Amino acid sequence: MTQPSAFEKRVKRQVTAREHDAFAVTAPGLEPLCARELGQLGPPPAAIETTKGGVAFRGRLTTVYLANLHLRTATRVRMRLTDFKATRLDQIHRRLVDFPWELYLFQGQACEIQVSTRGSRLYHREAIADQLRGAMAKRLAREGIPAAQTPAAQGLHLRLDGDRATLSLDSSGAALYRRGFKSQGTRAPLRENLAAAILLWAGYRPGEPLVDPLCGGGTFSLEAALMTLGIPPGLRRSFAFEGWPAFRPHHWDHLRQQAAPAAGPSTPPIFASDRSAAACNALATEVRRTGLDKAIHISRREFDSLTPADLPLPDAK
Q: CA distances (Å), 38 to each of 32, 231, 260, 270, in order?
């Protein structure tokens, strides 16, 4: 059995084994729903705090992974790396050139840097990003860290609020509303996280009958089907954290296997219809491709001609 290297021991001790502050970004107004979802993770984060624009929480890497896998209403999950006082550009370079970047990124790994400022003396975002980029490259070159094992870009967010700078690493990659279940787009599509939020707000309970008579692209039906079948929204997609030095594929595979859904209902409880044959055909293709036909029945119907007898739902009369 190969013994872990000194670097692997550092990653395990300083990244894998310790708790981290994280932040689930949400659309305005979705923060309470996201906080409720975080509280339902198993195990839930050690601390959950709702704030404007998202929900702060604390936990180990496993918690960050599970948040990406299970959250239906979040847009992305960021892991906070460090914070410090910054009133001059050179302070950013000086603080970040000594930050242990090698524990979180590979040398030469592409990074997408986002800078936001509020009430800060530093307002030139590109100049701030240059300081971050230069400090990161210098540290990684100095430490002799291996080259990137993945071409996937990593997202970094540096927020300056007054004299405080907070640096976060994006764990999600593509926005979380990109579930990986829909391959075809529609005009003016509803984002999946908003559809999930509306269903939750409306009191929808998985397995209950749902009628989606103007389904269009079928976002409401697809989200309800995922809930009914117990499929985590992130089960069929990849995440940015899979390109981190601390990532262990076998651990992630175990978490995904634990989240695998049980058998579906005997009768599809979701009825989706639309007057457009093209919309119905496209949705039917997606449903068959993703195995969601256990939960969704699709039929071309005019809305004003629907009657309860047309709905093949339990107890429909």
A: 10, 16, 19, 26
- Residues 65 and 15 sit within 8 Å (Cβ to Cβ): no
Contact 266, 277 (CB under 8 A): no
Q: Biggest alpha carbon distance in the chain?
A: 72
Pair 271, 297: CB distance under 8 Å: yes
Environment class of residue 28 by beta-carbon count within 10 Å: exposed (0-12), middle (13-18) or buried (19+)? exposed
CA distances from 241 to 63, 97, 139, 172 (A): 12, 22, 21, 7
DSSP code, position 147: B
Q: Is 127 left (phi over 0), alpha (psi -120 to 50) or beta?
A: alpha
The whole-chain average pLDDT of the chain stands at 91
Q: Which of 243, 246, 240, 255 is nearest to 13 (CA)?
A: 246
Length of the chain: 317
pTM for the structure as a whole: 0.92
Pairing mode of beta strands 20-26, 54-59 = antiparallel
Residue type (1 letter), 288: R
**How far lies 17's CA from each of 1, 9, 10, 14, in Å?**
22, 10, 10, 6
24 touches 57 (CB < 8 A): yes
User: Is the pLDDT reported for residue 31 higher than 60?
Assistant: yes
pLDDT band at 316 (very low <50, low <70, confident <90, very high): very low
Tokens of 140: 């990684």
Percentage above 70 pLDDT, the chain: 92
Q: Which two tokens stand for residue 19?
A: 């708790």
